[in-house]
């Protein structure tokens, strides 16, 4: 791959991840829509969301090489060592940038999680003492979905800021298996067998 | 000045322009509030929002457009750097730029919220003076509401300083990852 293709690949991955987050945000808003519209309509919408999600993951994140090649065109190919460094560096930059953007919206969630033990203690004692379920723990479906979305977004932000290690390793391993040297070894192995 | 400096200058200008636009885009809300309820309070909040936005925009333009050359030199380091083709040099510079962009994102969000709170306070005051029945009590200055914004402000200052520890840690991790892959390759050979 050329340098520009790697940059294009990283940008496509960034667009893919941000599209997934936006899509999940829309899905989390579905329960609030059910109050006004019929559940059947919402159920009909769900497969569209799922198909979009799969398409984004497949085209923009996992198999985006062809699109990156089309975007960046051809050029001087990098040697495998430089390619690995450029890939790891580009993906890490994308991860840090999007992680920071997500973190800016996740600070209230982090604070809520941190102070959760302080709030949960009196509620638990209320359950055991009065044998009643506290009303403050009863959430509507839209509140639940928004809480789950915020929590997952915070986890994603933390993971991205940690450097997205598994995904980068996965991408580097794919590249390693695709490199011409390894392919030659593979074909030689088949011939020897 | 090599390619790296030029690239850094371009990115700094882009950051400046992007966040100037982001800051200016919040002004219509203040104008709308004044338009929907003309009063001294909303006029004051509009003026304050305008002054705050104008001040920040002026600082942004000064640092990121006029002083970008010296800032680029500070970010890249020495002037005698190799071209970005060299493997390691570009990574900390790029990460530092991303951190600065992230810091501005944080700062503009904090400013956005601050002007929003000022506008809402003014709006609610104008509401009360106009003898309207105020149903909801509004307390935007409670500690619990302000704490996330204080944390965001601290984060933005750290990121605007280039987040040196974070960048160093990220670069070290990236190199470690690549070295691990190379070692795995050499073991399999």
What's the structural blueprint in terms of helices and strands?
The complex is a heterodimer of chains A (193) and B (189).
Chain A lengths: L2 H26 L1 H4 L5 H24 L2 H8 L7 H51 L10 H21 L3 H14 L1 H13 L1
Chain B lengths: L2 H22 L2 H10 L3 H27 L1 H9 L13 H40 L13 H18 L3 H25 L1
Question: Runs of chain B with pLDDT <50, length 5+?
Answer: 133-137
Question: Percentage of helical residues of chain A?
Answer: over 70%
* Percent of sequence in beta strands of chain A: under 5%
According to DSSP, the number of beta strands of chain A is 0
Whole-number mean pLDDT of chain A = 81
Summary?
Chain A has 193 residues and is mainly α.
Overview of the structural elements:
The complex is a heterodimer of chains A (193) and B (189). Chain A is mostly helical and 193 residues long. Chain A has one domain. Chain A contains eight helices and no strands. Chain A has helices at residues 3-28, 30-33, 39-62, 65-72, 80-130, 141-161, 165-178, 180-192. Chain A is elongated and about 70 Å long. The two termini of chain A are 31 Å apart. Chain B is mainly α. Chain B has one domain. Helices cover 80% and strands 0% of the residues of chain B. Chain B contains seven helices and no strands. Chain B has helices spanning 3-24, 27-36, 40-66, 68-76, 90-129, 143-160, 164-188. The A-B interface holds A 81-82, 84-85, 88-89, 92-93, 96-97, 100-101, 103-104, 107-108, 111, 163, 165, 168-169, 172, 176 and B 87-88, 90-91, 94-95, 98-99, 101-102, 105-106, 109, 147-148, 151-152, 155, 159, 170, 173-174, 177-178, 181-182, 185.
Give structural attributes.
heterodimer; A: 193 residues; mainly alpha; 83% helix; elongated; B: 189 residues; 80% helix; 0% strand
């Amino acid at each position: 791959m050329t340098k520009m293709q790697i940059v294009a690949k990283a940008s496509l991955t960034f667009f893919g991840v941000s599209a997934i987050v936006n899509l999940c945000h829309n899905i989390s808003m579905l329960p609030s829509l059910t109050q006004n519209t019929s559940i059947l309509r919402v159920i009909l919408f769900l497969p569209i969301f799922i198909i979009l999600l799969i398409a984004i993951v497949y085209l923009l994140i996992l198999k985006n090489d062809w699109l990156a090649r089309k975007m960046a065109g051809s050029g001087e190919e990098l040697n495998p060592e430089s390619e690995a460094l450029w890939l790891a560096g580009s993906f890490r930059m994308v991860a840090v940038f999007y992680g920071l953007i997500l973190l800016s919206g996740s600070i209230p969630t982090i604070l809520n999680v941190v102070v959760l033990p302080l709030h949960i203690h009196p509620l638990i004692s209320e359950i055991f003492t009065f044998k009643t379920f506290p009303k403050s723990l009863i959430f509507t479906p839209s509140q639940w979905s928004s809480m789950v979305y915020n929590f997952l977004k915070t986890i994603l932000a933390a993971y991205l800021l940690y450097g997205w290690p598994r995904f980068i390793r996965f991408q580097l391993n794919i590249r390693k298996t695709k490199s011409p040297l390894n392919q030659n070894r593979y074909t030689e192995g088949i011939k020897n067998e | 000045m090599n390619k790296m400096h030029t690239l850094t200058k371009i990115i700094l200008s882009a950051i400046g322009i992007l966040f100037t636009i982001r800051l200016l885009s919040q002004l219509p809300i203040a104008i709308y509030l004044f338009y929907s309820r003309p009063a001294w309070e909303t006029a004051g909040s509009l003026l304050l929002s305008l002054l705050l936005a104008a001040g920040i925009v002026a600082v942004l333009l000064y640092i990121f457009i006029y002083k970008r050359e010296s800032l680029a030199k500070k970010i890249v380091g020495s002037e005698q750097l190799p071209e970005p083709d060299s493997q390691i040099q570009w990574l900390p510079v790029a990460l530092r730029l991303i951190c600065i962009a992230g810091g501005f994102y944080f700062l503009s969000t904090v400013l956005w919220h601050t002007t929003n709170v000022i506008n809402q306070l003014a709006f609610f005051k104008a509401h009360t003076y106009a003898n309207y029945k105020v149903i909801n009590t509004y307390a935007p200055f409670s500690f619990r509401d302000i704490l996330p914004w204080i944390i965001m402000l601290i984060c933005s200052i750290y990121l605007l300083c280039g987040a040196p520890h974070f960048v160093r840690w990220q670069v070290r991790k990236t190199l470690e990852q690549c070295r691990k892959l190379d070692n795995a390759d050499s073991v399999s050979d």
